[in-house]
Amino acid sequence: MQVWTRVWGGLGLVMLGLSSRPALAFNQAPLSLKETRGVIQLSNPSARTLDLNLGVFAVIQKDGRPSAELTPMPVEQAEQLIRLRPTQVRLSSGATRTIPYTILDSKSDFFVCGVSSQGLVTLRVCSRWRSALPLFSSSSRLGRR
Amino acid sequence: MRHSRVLKGCGILAGAFCALGSLSGVAEAQVGTAQSVNFGQALVSNSCALSTSDGSIGVRTNRNLITSDQSEGGTYSGALVPATISVSSNLGSTGFVKVENPTLSGGTSAAASQVKLGSTGAWGSSAQALLGADGSMTAMPLHVKFTSSGRFATGTYTASATVSCYDGV
Questions:
Q1: Which of A114, B2, B52, B163 has the fewest CB atoms within 10 Å, measured from its CB?
Q2: DSSP 8-state class, residue B23
Q3: Which domain holds residue B161?
Q4: Are A65 and B166 a contacting pair at CB < 8 A?
Q5: Which residues in chain B have Cβ-Cβ distances shorter than 8 Å to A113?
Q6: Nearest-by-CA chain A residue for B83
Q7: How far apart are CA A52 and CA A35, in angstroms?
Q8: Is the pTM of this model over 0.90?
Q9: Domains of chain B: total
Q10: How far apart are CA B91 and CA B110, in angstroms?
């Protein structure tokens, strides 16, 4: 009887452990890029080793909120907007990595998303760089015409 | 030198009394040199930790529907289990999660591909959910549904979707 209690108790602990640890997870910060130079921090709180790709994505307005295009910009186009190295990162469980970036075109509006495609669900966490152009610039340009 | 060290440890108002105290011979002593303790840097910023667990899909016995959602009705072969999405962030309710691009890989292309967030959400080509006031979302079920104009051909099918976390500010 005691043996079975221990066995079931052990199984219960194993199942709790499985359910409390996410199968696949990553953290990215900051989600708003405020400075033209800085770092993006990536960390892996999951139990698995994680392969992440950092990509540059165009901003689209869909379903009432700005979000990132599904596919990243071509590398040549992305490299005109931001210098980001490395763009492929392997993070072991519990690891954190900072990726330095430099904004090259502050007048553009784009997302830098960390992407994990290891599971059936592709995970993205996206940091946004907003155009430095003031909101009234387009109307003032129109005014000059 | 000794006095200046002692005064450093005193508050501004208490400085005079403190100095008097040390001059009048109150026992104070420092053994060895002071050691400073440093901490590593912290990045204070908005962040999002997104986590998922994979689900599984099954096919309806008449082979016109592949889904992870048992509530679609009918009998299925395969285990129907939703994927789950959890978020831990410091975004507050400005943060949101978007699910899109439901994709079925296998012998027959789907005529319609849809996702649903939560057990009672609406089916669509994409779905969104705002994070709670504390910036978190706990184990939200994510369902997929693929319909065929005819019957799905025999073979192995896998389903995928893209989940993204954003700061909506």
A1: B2
A2: H
A3: 48-167
A4: yes
A5: 164
A6: A121
A7: 23
A8: no
A9: 2
A10: 36
